[in-house]
Protein backbone atom coordinates (compact mmCIF):
# COMPACT_ATOMS: atom_id res chain seq x y z
CA UNK A 1 0.00 0.00 0.00
CA UNK A 2 0.94 3.66 -0.18
CA UNK A 3 1.43 5.60 3.03
CA UNK A 4 2.93 8.81 4.39
CA UNK A 5 6.30 8.70 6.15
CA UNK A 6 8.07 11.59 7.86
CA UNK A 7 11.77 10.84 7.56
CA UNK A 8 12.92 13.96 9.39
CA UNK A 9 11.48 17.41 10.20
CA UNK A 10 10.16 18.91 6.96
CA UNK A 11 10.77 15.69 5.01
CA UNK A 12 7.42 14.06 4.24
CA UNK A 13 7.02 11.45 1.50
CA UNK A 14 4.26 9.18 0.28
CA UNK A 15 5.83 5.79 -0.34
CA UNK A 16 5.30 2.03 -0.29
CA UNK A 17 4.59 0.61 3.15
CA UNK A 18 3.77 -3.01 4.05
CA UNK A 19 0.06 -3.88 3.96
CA UNK A 20 -1.32 -4.23 7.50
CA UNK A 21 -2.56 -7.62 8.67
CA UNK A 22 -4.63 -8.91 11.59
CA UNK A 23 -2.10 -9.26 14.42
CA UNK A 24 -4.45 -9.74 17.36
CA UNK A 25 -7.90 -11.41 17.35
CA UNK A 26 -9.36 -8.03 18.41
CA UNK A 27 -7.95 -6.19 15.35
CA UNK A 28 -9.68 -4.98 12.22
CA UNK A 29 -8.11 -3.81 8.97
CA UNK A 30 -9.85 -0.94 7.20
CA UNK A 31 -9.51 0.56 3.72
CA UNK A 32 -9.46 4.31 4.21
CA UNK A 33 -12.08 6.48 2.51
CA UNK A 34 -10.25 9.57 3.75
CA UNK A 35 -7.55 10.62 6.15
CA UNK A 36 -6.12 14.00 7.09
CA UNK A 37 -3.26 16.03 8.47
CA UNK A 38 -3.53 17.20 12.08
CA UNK A 39 -2.20 20.39 13.63
CA UNK A 40 -0.27 18.12 15.99
CA UNK A 41 1.55 16.58 12.98
CA UNK A 42 3.23 19.96 12.65
CA UNK A 43 5.13 19.49 15.92
CA UNK A 44 7.50 16.86 14.46
CA UNK A 45 7.36 18.62 11.07
CA UNK A 46 8.78 21.74 12.70
CA UNK A 47 11.33 19.76 14.73
CA UNK A 48 9.68 20.53 18.09
CA UNK A 49 9.05 16.81 18.58
CA UNK A 50 11.61 14.16 17.61
CA UNK A 51 10.87 12.27 14.41
CA UNK A 52 12.71 9.71 12.32
CA UNK A 53 11.18 7.61 9.55
CA UNK A 54 7.76 7.65 11.25
CA UNK A 55 4.53 6.51 9.62
CA UNK A 56 2.16 9.45 10.02
CA UNK A 57 -1.51 10.04 10.72
CA UNK A 58 -4.05 9.20 13.40
CA UNK A 59 -7.39 10.22 11.85
CA UNK A 60 -9.34 7.75 9.75
CA UNK A 61 -12.65 6.69 8.30
CA UNK A 62 -13.22 3.84 5.90
CA UNK A 63 -14.57 0.41 5.14
CA UNK A 64 -13.76 -2.69 7.18
CA UNK A 65 -11.86 -5.20 5.04
CA UNK A 66 -11.10 -7.92 7.54
CA UNK A 67 -11.67 -8.60 11.24
CA UNK A 68 -9.97 -10.82 13.83
CA UNK A 69 -11.73 -13.85 15.36
CA UNK A 70 -12.91 -11.99 18.48
CA UNK A 71 -14.38 -8.92 16.78
CA UNK A 72 -18.16 -8.78 17.26
CA UNK A 73 -19.49 -5.26 16.62
CA UNK A 74 -18.15 -4.51 13.13
CA UNK A 75 -17.87 -6.72 10.07
CA UNK A 76 -16.32 -6.53 6.60
CA UNK A 77 -18.18 -3.99 4.47
CA UNK A 78 -19.16 -1.71 7.39
CA UNK A 79 -18.27 1.95 7.03
CA UNK A 80 -16.60 3.02 10.27
CA UNK A 81 -15.26 6.05 12.13
CA UNK A 82 -12.68 5.79 14.89
CA UNK A 83 -10.62 8.18 16.95
CA UNK A 84 -6.92 8.75 17.52
CA UNK A 85 -6.80 6.46 20.54
CA UNK A 86 -7.78 2.84 20.18
CA UNK A 87 -9.64 1.89 23.38
CA UNK A 88 -11.40 -1.19 24.72
CA UNK A 89 -14.45 0.87 25.79
CA UNK A 90 -15.01 -1.56 28.68
CA UNK A 91 -12.48 -0.68 31.43
CA UNK A 92 -13.42 1.60 34.35
CA UNK A 93 -11.81 4.65 32.72
CA UNK A 94 -13.64 4.05 29.42
CA UNK A 95 -16.96 3.49 31.19
CA UNK A 96 -16.48 6.84 32.92
CA UNK A 97 -16.19 8.42 29.46
CA UNK A 98 -12.44 8.92 29.24
CA UNK A 99 -11.58 6.43 26.50
CA UNK A 100 -8.48 8.45 25.53
CA UNK A 101 -6.97 7.32 28.85
CA UNK A 102 -8.21 3.72 28.55
CA UNK A 103 -6.02 1.34 30.57
CA UNK A 104 -5.37 -0.48 27.27
CA UNK A 105 -5.21 2.63 25.05
CA UNK A 106 -3.11 2.43 21.89
CA UNK A 107 -2.18 5.66 20.06
CA UNK A 108 -3.22 5.43 16.41
CA UNK A 109 -0.35 7.76 15.55
CA UNK A 110 1.99 4.82 16.21
CA UNK A 111 0.19 2.92 13.44
CA UNK A 112 -0.01 5.76 10.92
CA UNK A 113 -3.36 6.20 9.19
CA UNK A 114 -2.23 8.51 6.40
CA UNK A 115 -2.30 5.43 4.20
CA UNK A 116 -4.56 3.32 2.02
CA UNK A 117 -5.05 0.67 4.71
CA UNK A 118 -4.75 0.65 8.49
CA UNK A 119 -4.83 -1.89 11.28
CA UNK A 120 -7.25 -0.83 14.03
CA UNK A 121 -6.54 -2.47 17.41
CA UNK A 122 -9.40 -3.13 19.87
CA UNK A 123 -11.83 -2.79 16.98
CA UNK A 124 -14.98 -3.47 19.03
CA UNK A 125 -14.19 -0.66 21.43
CA UNK A 126 -12.67 1.74 18.94
CA UNK A 127 -14.80 1.69 15.80
CA UNK A 128 -18.32 3.01 15.36
CA UNK A 129 -20.21 1.94 12.23
CA UNK A 130 -22.26 4.54 10.36
CA UNK A 131 -25.93 3.73 9.60
CA UNK A 132 -24.94 2.80 6.03
CA UNK A 133 -22.53 3.71 3.25
CA UNK A 134 -22.31 7.51 3.42
CA UNK A 135 -22.94 9.70 0.38
CA UNK A 136 -19.68 11.28 -0.75
CA UNK A 137 -20.62 14.75 0.45
CA UNK A 138 -20.70 13.50 4.06
CA UNK A 139 -17.13 12.16 3.92
CA UNK A 140 -15.44 15.41 5.09
CA UNK A 141 -17.82 15.79 8.03
CA UNK A 142 -17.38 12.16 9.13
CA UNK A 143 -13.63 12.67 8.74
CA UNK A 144 -13.83 15.70 11.05
CA UNK A 145 -15.60 13.57 13.68
CA UNK A 146 -12.48 11.38 13.97
CA UNK A 147 -10.50 14.11 15.69
CA UNK A 148 -11.10 17.86 15.35
CA UNK A 149 -14.87 17.79 15.86
CA UNK A 150 -14.63 15.31 18.72
CA UNK A 151 -11.81 17.33 20.28
CA UNK A 152 -13.66 20.65 19.94
CA UNK A 153 -16.76 18.95 21.35
CA UNK A 154 -14.80 17.71 24.36
CA UNK A 155 -13.41 21.21 24.89
CA UNK A 156 -16.87 22.75 24.83
CA UNK A 157 -18.29 20.00 27.06
CA UNK A 158 -15.41 20.37 29.54
CA UNK A 159 -16.09 24.13 29.55
CA UNK A 160 -19.77 23.28 30.20
CA UNK A 161 -20.98 25.44 27.32
CA UNK A 162 -24.75 25.59 27.42
CA UNK A 163 -27.96 27.63 27.41
CA UNK A 164 -27.78 31.08 28.95
CA UNK A 165 -23.99 31.02 29.01
CA UNK A 166 -21.20 32.87 27.25
CA UNK A 167 -18.44 30.73 25.70
CA UNK A 168 -15.04 32.02 24.64
CA UNK A 169 -12.89 30.00 22.25
CA UNK A 170 -9.18 30.79 22.29
CA UNK A 171 -7.63 29.53 19.05
CA UNK A 172 -8.94 29.68 15.48
CA UNK A 173 -7.41 26.44 14.18
CA UNK A 174 -9.59 23.52 13.18
CA UNK A 175 -10.20 22.44 16.79
CA UNK A 176 -11.10 25.97 17.90
CA UNK A 177 -13.56 26.29 15.02
CA UNK A 178 -15.11 22.95 15.93
CA UNK A 179 -15.41 24.11 19.56
CA UNK A 180 -17.43 27.06 18.25
CA UNK A 181 -19.74 24.65 16.43
CA UNK A 182 -20.00 22.46 19.55
CA UNK A 183 -20.83 25.44 21.77
CA UNK A 184 -23.60 26.41 19.36
CA UNK A 185 -25.01 22.87 19.33
CA UNK A 186 -24.83 22.71 23.13
CA UNK A 187 -26.96 25.85 23.23
CA UNK A 188 -24.51 28.56 24.30
CA UNK A 189 -26.13 31.98 24.14
CA UNK A 190 -23.07 33.98 23.18
CA UNK A 191 -19.96 32.56 21.49
CA UNK A 192 -16.87 34.73 21.31
CA UNK A 193 -14.18 33.51 18.90
CA UNK A 194 -10.68 34.90 19.32
CA UNK A 195 -9.20 35.29 15.82
CA UNK A 196 -7.31 37.81 13.74
CA UNK A 197 -7.42 35.91 10.45
CA UNK A 198 -10.27 37.11 8.16
CA UNK A 199 -10.91 33.68 6.58
CA UNK A 200 -10.99 31.96 9.96
CA UNK A 201 -13.22 34.71 11.35
CA UNK A 202 -15.66 34.01 8.53
CA UNK A 203 -15.59 30.27 9.26
CA UNK A 204 -16.08 30.96 12.97
CA UNK A 205 -19.19 33.00 12.15
CA UNK A 206 -20.43 30.20 9.87
CA UNK A 207 -20.03 27.70 12.72
CA UNK A 208 -21.89 29.91 15.20
CA UNK A 209 -19.66 32.65 16.66
CA UNK A 210 -21.72 35.67 17.70
CA UNK A 211 -18.69 37.89 18.40
CA UNK A 212 -15.14 37.97 17.08
CA UNK A 213 -12.24 39.47 19.02
CA UNK A 214 -8.83 39.92 17.43
CA UNK A 215 -6.89 40.84 20.59
CA UNK A 216 -4.50 38.41 22.24
CA UNK A 217 -3.03 37.87 25.69
CA UNK A 218 -3.95 40.44 28.35
CA UNK A 219 -5.66 42.61 25.73
CA UNK A 220 -7.79 39.62 24.75
CA UNK A 221 -8.73 39.07 28.39
CA UNK A 222 -9.67 42.75 28.79
CA UNK A 223 -11.83 42.60 25.64
CA UNK A 224 -13.66 39.51 26.93
CA UNK A 225 -14.26 41.17 30.31
CA UNK A 226 -15.68 44.20 28.54
CA UNK A 227 -18.30 41.93 26.94
CA UNK A 228 -19.09 40.06 30.18
CA UNK A 229 -19.81 42.76 32.79
CA UNK A 230 -16.18 42.69 33.89
CA UNK A 231 -16.24 39.12 35.25
CA UNK A 232 -15.21 36.89 32.33
CA UNK A 233 -17.02 34.09 30.53
CA UNK A 234 -18.83 31.09 32.03
CA UNK A 235 -17.10 28.74 29.61
CA UNK A 236 -13.71 29.03 27.94
CA UNK A 237 -12.16 26.58 25.49
CA UNK A 238 -8.40 26.70 25.01
CA UNK A 239 -7.38 25.24 21.64
CA UNK A 240 -3.80 26.40 21.10
CA UNK A 241 -1.57 25.09 23.89
CA UNK A 242 0.94 27.89 24.42
CA UNK A 243 1.82 29.65 27.66
CA UNK A 244 0.13 32.84 26.48
CA UNK A 245 -3.06 31.15 25.29
CA UNK A 246 -3.40 29.03 28.45
CA UNK A 247 -3.08 32.11 30.68
CA UNK A 248 -5.42 34.03 28.39
CA UNK A 249 -7.99 31.26 28.75
CA UNK A 250 -7.61 31.02 32.53
CA UNK A 251 -7.96 34.79 32.93
CA UNK A 252 -10.94 34.92 30.58
CA UNK A 253 -12.89 32.44 32.75
CA UNK A 254 -15.01 33.89 35.52
CA UNK A 255 -14.50 32.52 39.03
CA UNK A 256 -16.65 29.43 39.40
CA UNK A 257 -16.68 29.01 35.62
CA UNK A 258 -15.29 26.18 33.52
CA UNK A 259 -12.32 25.99 31.21
CA UNK A 260 -11.68 23.13 28.80
CA UNK A 261 -8.17 22.88 27.39
CA UNK A 262 -7.51 20.76 24.34
CA UNK A 263 -4.45 22.38 22.76
CA UNK A 264 -1.36 20.20 23.29
CA UNK A 265 0.49 22.12 26.01
CA UNK A 266 4.12 21.99 24.91
CA UNK A 267 6.36 23.56 27.55
CA UNK A 268 3.54 25.33 29.34
CA UNK A 269 4.26 26.02 33.03
CA UNK A 270 1.37 27.57 34.92
CA UNK A 271 2.12 29.70 37.98
CA UNK A 272 0.43 28.17 41.03
CA UNK A 273 -0.81 31.46 42.43
CA UNK A 274 -2.58 32.27 39.15
CA UNK A 275 -4.38 28.94 39.34
CA UNK A 276 -5.13 29.39 43.03
CA UNK A 277 -6.76 32.78 42.72
CA UNK A 278 -8.48 32.09 39.40
CA UNK A 279 -10.80 29.72 41.26
CA UNK A 280 -12.06 28.00 38.14
CA UNK A 281 -12.88 24.44 37.09
CA UNK A 282 -10.38 23.06 34.60
CA UNK A 283 -10.56 19.87 32.55
CA UNK A 284 -8.42 19.04 29.56
CA UNK A 285 -6.26 16.52 27.83
CA UNK A 286 -6.41 14.31 24.77
CA UNK A 287 -10.10 14.25 23.92
CA UNK A 288 -12.08 11.07 24.59
CA UNK A 289 -13.56 11.35 21.11
CA UNK A 290 -14.99 7.84 21.33
CA UNK A 291 -17.47 9.03 23.97
CA UNK A 292 -19.02 11.45 21.48
CA UNK A 293 -18.77 9.47 18.22
CA UNK A 294 -22.23 7.82 18.13
CA UNK A 295 -23.92 11.19 18.78
CA UNK A 296 -21.69 13.12 16.35
CA UNK A 297 -22.14 10.55 13.57
CA UNK A 298 -25.93 10.75 13.97
CA UNK A 299 -25.93 14.58 13.85
CA UNK A 300 -23.82 14.45 10.68
CA UNK A 301 -25.98 11.71 9.17
CA UNK A 302 -29.10 13.79 9.86
CA UNK A 303 -27.33 16.84 8.36
CA UNK A 304 -27.80 18.85 11.55
CA UNK A 305 -24.14 19.89 11.50
CA UNK A 306 -21.64 20.46 8.72
CA UNK A 307 -18.18 20.21 10.36
CA UNK A 308 -16.62 19.15 7.04
CA UNK A 309 -16.48 22.82 6.09
CA UNK A 310 -13.34 23.00 8.25
CA UNK A 311 -11.37 21.24 5.48
CA UNK A 312 -10.25 23.96 3.10
CA UNK A 313 -7.83 21.88 1.04
CA UNK A 314 -8.23 18.37 -0.35
CA UNK A 315 -5.27 16.57 -1.90
CA UNK A 316 -4.53 13.04 -3.03
CA UNK A 317 -2.47 11.01 -0.55
CA UNK A 318 0.40 11.14 -3.06
CA UNK A 319 0.61 14.93 -2.51
CA UNK A 320 0.70 14.76 1.29
CA UNK A 321 3.97 16.72 1.37
CA UNK A 322 2.19 19.73 -0.14
CA UNK A 323 -0.57 19.33 2.44
CA UNK A 324 1.98 19.54 5.27
CA UNK A 325 3.55 22.63 3.67
CA UNK A 326 0.15 24.31 3.31
CA UNK A 327 -0.71 23.73 6.97
CA UNK A 328 2.76 24.70 8.18
CA UNK A 329 2.55 27.99 6.27
CA UNK A 330 -1.05 28.49 7.50
CA UNK A 331 -2.30 28.52 3.91
CA UNK A 332 -4.77 25.82 4.95
CA UNK A 333 -6.75 25.31 8.17
CA UNK A 334 -7.06 21.55 7.70
CA UNK A 335 -6.08 19.25 4.84
CA UNK A 336 -8.10 16.20 3.79
CA UNK A 337 -6.19 13.44 2.00
CA UNK A 338 -7.89 11.01 -0.36
CA UNK A 339 -6.16 7.61 -0.61
ZN1 LIG B 1 -10.70 1.20 28.45
TrEMBL record:
<dbReference type="InterPro" id="IPR013149">
    <property type="entry name" value="ADH-like_C"/>
</dbReference>
<protein>
    <submittedName>
        <fullName>Zinc-dependent alcohol dehydrogenase family protein</fullName>
    </submittedName>
</protein>
<keyword id="KW-0560">Oxidoreductase</keyword>
<dbReference type="Pfam" id="PF08240">
    <property type="entry name" value="ADH_N"/>
</dbReference>
<feature type="domain" description="Enoyl reductase (ER)">
    <location>
        <begin position="7"/>
        <end position="337"/>
    </location>
</feature>
<feature type="compositionally biased region" description="Basic and acidic residues">
    <location>
        <begin position="10"/>
        <end position="20"/>
    </location>
</feature>
<dbReference type="InterPro" id="IPR002328">
    <property type="entry name" value="ADH_Zn_CS"/>
</dbReference>
<keyword id="KW-0479">Metal-binding</keyword>
<comment type="similarity">
    <text>Belongs to the zinc-containing alcohol dehydrogenase family.</text>
</comment>
<dbReference type="Pfam" id="PF00107">
    <property type="entry name" value="ADH_zinc_N"/>
</dbReference>
<dbReference type="InterPro" id="IPR020843">
    <property type="entry name" value="ER"/>
</dbReference>
<dbReference type="InterPro" id="IPR013154">
    <property type="entry name" value="ADH-like_N"/>
</dbReference>
<feature type="region of interest" description="Disordered">
    <location>
        <begin position="1"/>
        <end position="21"/>
    </location>
</feature>
<dbReference type="InterPro" id="IPR036291">
    <property type="entry name" value="NAD(P)-bd_dom_sf"/>
</dbReference>
<dbReference type="GO" id="GO:0016491">
    <property type="term" value="F:oxidoreductase activity"/>
</dbReference>
<dbReference type="GO" id="GO:0008270">
    <property type="term" value="F:zinc ion binding"/>
</dbReference>
<dbReference type="InterPro" id="IPR011032">
    <property type="entry name" value="GroES-like_sf"/>
</dbReference>
<keyword id="KW-0862">Zinc</keyword>
Amino acid sequence: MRGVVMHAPGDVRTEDRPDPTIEEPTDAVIRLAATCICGSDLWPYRGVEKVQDSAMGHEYIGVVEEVGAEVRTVKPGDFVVGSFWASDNTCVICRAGFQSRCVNAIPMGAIGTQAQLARIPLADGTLVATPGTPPSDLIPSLMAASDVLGTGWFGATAAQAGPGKTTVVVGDGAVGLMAVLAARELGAERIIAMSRNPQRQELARYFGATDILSQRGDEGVAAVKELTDGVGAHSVVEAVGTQESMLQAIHSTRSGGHMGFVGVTYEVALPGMELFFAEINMLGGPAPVRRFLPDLIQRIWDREIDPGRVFDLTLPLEEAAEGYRAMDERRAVKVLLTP
